[in-house]
Every structure is written in structure tokens, then in C-alpha cells.
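To close the chapter, one final illustration. This time we ask the reader to focus less on the individual chains and more on the assembly as a whole: which components sit near each other, and how the overall shape emerges from the parts.
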Amino acid sequence: MNTPQANAAATRMTYREACKQALREALLSDSRVFLMGEDIGRYGGCYAVTKGLLEEFGEERIRDTPLSESAFVGAGVGAAMAGMRPIVEIMTVNFSLLALDQILNNAVTIPHMSGGQFAIPLVIRMATGGGRRVGAQHSRSLEGWYAHIPGLRVLTPATVEDARFMLKGALADPNPVIIFEHVMLYNMEGDLPSDMEKVDIAHAKLRRAGRDVSLITYGGSLFKALEAADALAAEGIDAEVIDLRVLRPLDTKTILDSVAKTRRCVIIDEGWRSGSISAEIGMRIAEEAFFELDAPLRRVCSREAPIPYAAHLEDACLPQVATIVAVARELVRPS
Amino acid sequence: MPALGADMEAGTLVEWLVKPGDRVKSGDVVAVVETQKGAIEVEIFLEGVVSNILVPVGARVPVGTVLAQIDGAPGAAPPLPLEPAAAALKPAPQILAQAPPMPAITAPSSRLKITPAARRRATALSLDPTMIVKGTGVEGSIRLADVETYASGAKLAQRPAKKGLDLSQMRQAIAAAMSRSKREIPHYYLTETVDLNAALTWIERFNAEKTPVERILPAVLFLKAAALALREQPQLNGAYENGAFIPSSSIHVGWAISLRGGGLIAPAIRDADKKSLAELMGAMRDLVERARRGNLRSSELTSPTVTVTSVGDRGAESVTGIIYPPQVAIIGFGRVVTRPWVVDGRIETRPLVTVSLAADHRVTDGHIGGLYLAAVGRLLQEPDKL
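The assembled structure is written out below.
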């Protein structure tokens, strides 16, 4: 897979490498930055993102923690309150539920309850998503749940450049930020423009311009949407692809502008349909762009079931290119 | 918005012929409404001053919608009801063109399926989206491209004049009404052959003294006989609605008129049993002419209490009709044929007509129907009394 925009003067690297470079840069540029999480030190991280960092930065700054998400996220909240810039890794979003109390009741609430006396410049990284054949307890996409919480910024880097530079913006944010890295993206290679130094963490991005239908998505589903757009183009259907990048606060304007142009929309979300971020996006379109619509809104989401272990069942459960193509085609050229 | 046909659910206000401040009286034509049957003039049935036009030109509204308000009508309500719910329960004397006794069905399926973007575009272009017959969008919805296509087509080939008849729409209306009839009404059919010797001899004598304009056709005798016989069998004259038959005290005969280029319409000849033959002939001529021009009045389409169809010289020998709901009977007259006929034990050639009755078995049985046909036959033997 490739990032969609190649650049002549660019370095080719994996998404994993981009994440690691971002962490290294943060550790090098700010002594207040330290990493905390399960198996991030000696083991090098569950997805090998932090491999080698312990050797380079030492145990003080690369801290292996006990298997207690509540404890080490809580420690991160405290450290942030005390002026540090902790970057906490939770192995996957599935295990973050143990830390949900710390995130919701402390990290996003203390700045409010303290009347602004405390800021919580905490960054939490988590892997998310399915497709790796690791069963129901390791394969969910719960980022939509976090996008429900006021006071959080929720980032979903899908490209190498976003993996490389979103962390910098997140660390500069005085409030808690969660970065969701999709498990299927770590091995993806992409080109990083050599003159690039930062990305914004506020806006969605047009990844492919089109006239006939908007495919709105984020994270791991971005490349499925882009592949679907290629397939649709072969049929003469010109699909536009929007990468949300930020699930909270949502960049409603970019969404509405796209829908106003194409008048048709498919939202692709690996989360479960009911009460999902796709539901929120669809509702905003209905509220604010109703008269632009020339077809019903459609969604491609995960089946509402625990994500299966068996490969064929997992594939059937998650959004796939063929489904996106079929749903988009039906909107543009009803059978 | 009056229901101008059994299956009409909505109509488009094409033209207002009055404006606020105008004084109106019963029988005045106040507006033109476009329906599947073409442009129909809407009459008013009360007197007063138009105080408020509620539905603008171009709007398509469901049957039963108040089109305008009339002040000074007996028992007129305040101009603007304060509580819509309460007002809706009252029979509203200020309603223009009283809704006739037909169920105003607004089934969800009848709603125009059009995307928001297409509807907005149609409004911007001042197009009536109901004129777009086929949508190409999801679930057959009318979408933006359909509006644009229609708009460009309409510019090229000016759409049929507002007052003309849209035959494809009429076909749909006939299809809907007849399907409903065959679906809901358990028809029974009876026929009777009637000797027309006396009737035709009488007509020949009657016409001999008249100018061509004053001459009458056999169909007029059929119409009058059919109407008079209904006085004897009132259960064939009225409407079946909501599970019950409502007899009509008047006999308004819907006279079936076939239109050039296809289509059929059956406007009413009011109080046909009380009109003279000359009056009936005049009414018939007038209706045929106006029906073919697409210039009928709303009351003429809604008031028939029974239908009579006469196939004339070029038709078949007998006709078995389909009842026009909510009516409960249709009487058919076939082509007049000359055949051997037994008269006083001897075979003679006689002009004969087959009179048929299709009636609603929920309301009457064959016994009543038989008595009715016998009465028609008897009345046609004494044409001078018609």
C-alpha cells in the first residue's frame, strides 16, 4: 500500500518507523517527554514501535509498566498535572477500557473541575482495529467511543506523514489527546516528504477529489476507500475520498463541503454501526446539508458482532473494498 | 382540494380565478386544479368574500387541504383557527369546494419520492416535480439529474398546455380506479335484451319535426330510462364507503365519454331523472364537447351517483362494465342490432339492445338487479312517457 501522494524528494518508510521517529523526535526535543506502557521497553512494544528506544534513552524515560492500564494511565495523568509530557502506550484499545475511568473522570475532567488550574497535556497512543486474526478481544475499533467525550482530542493517523507528525501537534496540545494507530497500517510503506515538518491536527483531508460520491472514512479504512475509488473509477464513477484524521473535534466543514459537491455519501467506519462515529457524521450531514443530498446516506460498518477469529469470518465482519464499491455504485447508478 | 376522482390523493393548484376581496356565489368557478384527469375547474358552493388564499399557484397539496377562506359564509369560522387540532375536527363551512364524500387517502406510498436536492432544484426552476414520471435515483426516487433532464426537455418541447389532458396520466388514473374496483367490489352481472321497436319509431317521428340541433339520439332515451328506473331501485344509486352503503337522494348519472386518443371520463348529468329529453340531449352534447377539450368542472367529476355507458353505433353488442368506485352500479347499453324476435307468437325482425347491469354484491343481490333491468325495458316500451 502507498500513501496517496508521492513526493519526489521523499524518504520511504513504514508507518511503524514513522511512529518511532515521531517518538524519538519528541524524546530528543523535550526532556519532559517520557514513554510509559506495557512491554514498550525490553520487548520493544507489542507492535515494535518503541524497539531500540530503551537502549537509546534509558529506563527513566522508557518505562515498562505492570499490566494495569488503570494504574499507568493514572500515573500519566498525575505526571502531566505535575508538568511532565507523558506519552502513554496502551497496547490496544480493547484494554483501554480498564483505563477509561482515568481518562474520563480524571484526564478530561480535572482541567474543568479545577477551574483551569491544571492542564493535562497527556498523550495516549493505542492500536486499534481488526484484520490480524487475533480474536474478539484484540480486534475492536472503539475510537468512536472516545470521540464521544468532550475535552479529548482524538486523532486517527492513516498515512505515514500523519503517523510521523501528528504526535508533535498532540504534545503541543495542553489537553489530553488520544492517537489511534490501526494495526493493519504498521507495515504499510509510504513516502515522507523531506521538507515536511508538521501536520495540522484539526482538519480532515481530501485524499482524492471526485464528483459523484463522497467516501468518508478514517484510519485503516482509508486505503480500502481509496482502493474502492480506483475500482469505481474503472466503472466511470468518480469518487471523492475524505480522510477524517481527527474524530474529535470533527471537521464538519470539510465533510459538508464534500457532500455539497457530490451530493452522495458513503461513510466507512470499522466501528459497529449503532451509535458509531459514522452515525454522528451521517446525522451532521442530515442536519446541515439535507438539501444538498441527492441520494440517501449510506454506511459501511463492521457487523454488529464480536469480531471473529477465523479469517473468512473476520473478513466478512469488517468493511471491505467490494462492499464499499457496491454501496457507492448503487447510490450513483441504482440497479 | 376536492377529490376529483376515487383514487385522487393530491392535486396541483394551477390558477386562481379569484383574489382576496372578491365576492363569490355558489357555482362560481374559483380556481383551476390539475389532476390526473387534466385541468379541472373548481366550483364553490357558498356565498361570501374571499378573505384568504391559502394555497399558492403551483403547489401540490393533498385532497382535503383548505385552499382558501371565505368570509360571510353561513356559520363561517374565524378567519384563522387558533387551534389547528380543534379546527380540523369541525366541518369547515369556509372550505372552498367542499370535499365530496370520498375517502381522502394519503398513503405514504403515494408520496412523491424525490431527493432533497432535486426538490430544491425543481423549486428554483419553478417546475412541478410531479410531472416527472420516472425517477432514476435510489428506489426510483426523482433525483437532481431527473429534474435537469426534465427541465431541458421542457424547454425544448413545451409541455402540454396546462388546460389540456395528459392522457398518460389519465391512463394511470383509470388503471388505479378500475384496479381498485376489481379488487374491492364483488361485481355481479345481469343482462336483458330489450325490443326497441317502439322507442326507435317514436324517435323517428320526434326528430322528423326537428332541426338537426334539436334531434335526439337513442342514447338519450337509454339515459332517461336508466335514470327513471333507479327511482324504483334506489339501492343501485349511491356510494359504498367505509363498509356501508349511502343511498343518494338525487340521481346524478355519470355519462361515460371516450376521448379521442384514448382515455375515458364519466362526468355527471345532474338530476337526470328530472330532465326532459331535450335537456338531456343538450347536457350530453355539452359534456362531450367540454370533456374532449379537457374543460370539465370539479363537481361534474365528483357528483355521479351511478354510471351509464352506451357504446353507440360502432360498439359491441353488449358491454359488461366495471363499477367506478365508490358507486355501486354501472348500466351498459350495447349496439342496437336487428334480429329475429318473437312477437305475439310470431317471428319478426326487431331492433334490439342488450342492457347490462354490473352491480356491487355487497349492496344488492341479483333479484334487485333483475327488477331494475326489467324496469328499464318496460320504460323503453313507452318512449312518449320518458
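Chain A has a mean pLDDT of 96. The two ends of chain A are 32 Å apart (CA to CA). With these observations in hand, you are ready for the problems at the end of the chapter.
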